[in-house]
Amino acid sequence: QVDVAAMVRLFGYVDVTDTGFIVAVLSIAFNPLFWNVVGRWEHKTRALSQVFGSPHAACYCLGAVILVLNCVRSHCFTEAMKSQPKLEGWDHHWTYYSGLAISAVGTLFVISSFLALGFTGTFLGDYFGILMEEKVTSFPFSILDNPMYLGSTAIYLGWSLMHASPAGLLLTAVVAISYTIAVLYEG
C-alpha cells in the first residue's frame, strides 16, 4: 500500500507553478509526442525522405533533432530540480550512491539498446522504411520490452535521488507517464 500522507509531505516540497518546473513538464511531454507524430507523418507521406533526398539522410536528421530535444529536456529537468528545495532527510551518501547505481543501470539499458538497434533502429528508421533484417532479441531486449524507455526513466530517477529532489521525483513520474503513453501509441 502507498502511504498517501508521506507522498503529500514529499510533494509539499514541490512548487508546480514554478516556471522552470512547468517548462520541464512541457519538454518531457513534448519529446515523445514530437517523434511519434513526425514518424507517423513520414510513414504516411515520405515528405522528409523527399526533402532530404533519401530515407537514411532524413532519418539521421530527425535523429539529430531528437538528440538535441533530449538534451534540452535534460537541461530543463536539471534546472527545475535546482530551483526547488532538497529533501534534507535524503541528502546523504546512501541516497546519492543509490541514485548513482540506478542511473548506471539506466545508462546500461540505454547504451546497450542503442548498440543493439543502431542509429536508424533507435531513431525511427522503420517509419522511413529502413527495416532491420530481424527482430532484435539480444540484451537488453532479452529481458525487457522497452529497455530504452525504462533506462531513460531510471537515469532521471537516479539523478533525482542524487540531488535529493522531490521535484525531480515528480518529474521522473512525468517521464514514466509520457513513455507509457508513447508505448501505447507506438504499439
From TrEMBL:
User: So which domain of life are we looking at?
Assistant: Eukaryota
Pathway assigned in UniProt: Lipid metabolism; Phospholipid metabolism; phosphatidylcholine biosynthesis
Q: Which GO terms describe its cellular component?
A: endoplasmic reticulum membrane
Q: Which organism is it from?
A: Grantiella picta
Name the keywords, alphabetized: Endoplasmic reticulum, Lipid biosynthesis, Lipid metabolism, Membrane, Methyltransferase, Mitochondrion, Phospholipid biosynthesis, Phospholipid metabolism, S-adenosyl-L-methionine, Transferase, Transmembrane, Transmembrane helix
Membrane association type: Multi-pass membrane protein
Key word S-adenosyl-L-methionine present in the record? yes
Enzyme superclass (EC): transferase
**Catalysed reactions listed for this entry:** 1,2-di-(9Z,12Z-octadecadienoyl)-sn-glycero-3-phospho-N,N-dimethylethanolamine + S-adenosyl-L-methionine = 1,2-di-(9Z,12Z-octadecadienoyl)-sn-glycero-3-phosphocholine + S-adenosyl-L-homocysteine + H(+); 1-hexadecanoyl-2-(4Z,7Z,10Z,13Z,16Z,19Z-docosahexaenoyl)-sn-glycero-3-phosphoethanolamine + S-adenosyl-L-methionine = 1-hexadecanoyl-2-(4Z,7Z,10Z,13Z,16Z,19Z-docosahexaenoyl)-sn-glycero-3-phospho-N-methylethanolamine + S-adenosyl-L-homocysteine + H(+); 1,2-di-(9Z,12Z-octadecadienoyl)-sn-glycero-3-phosphoethanolamine + S-adenosyl-L-methionine = 1,2-di-(9Z,12Z-octadecadienoyl)-sn-glycero-3-phospho-N-methylethanolamine + S-adenosyl-L-homocysteine + H(+); 1,2-di-(9Z,12Z,15Z-octadecatrienoyl)-sn-glycero-3-phosphoethanolamine + S-adenosyl-L-methionine = 1,2-di-(9Z,12Z,15Z-octadecatrienoyl)-sn-glycero-3-phospho-N-methylethanolamine + S-adenosyl-L-homocysteine + H(+)
Q: What are the protein's GO molecular function terms?
A: phosphatidyl-N-methylethanolamine N-methyltransferase activity; phosphatidylethanolamine N-methyltransferase activity
Enzyme Commission number(s): 2.1.1.17, 2.1.1.71
Q: Which GO terms describe its biological process?
A: methylation; phosphatidylcholine biosynthetic process
Lineage of source species: Eukaryota, Metazoa, Chordata, Craniata, Vertebrata
Name any one Pfam family assigned in the record. Answer: PEMT
**Which PROSITE patterns does the record match to this protein?**
SAM_PEMT_PEM2 (PS51599)
This chain belongs to the protein called Phosphatidylethanolamine N-methyltransferase
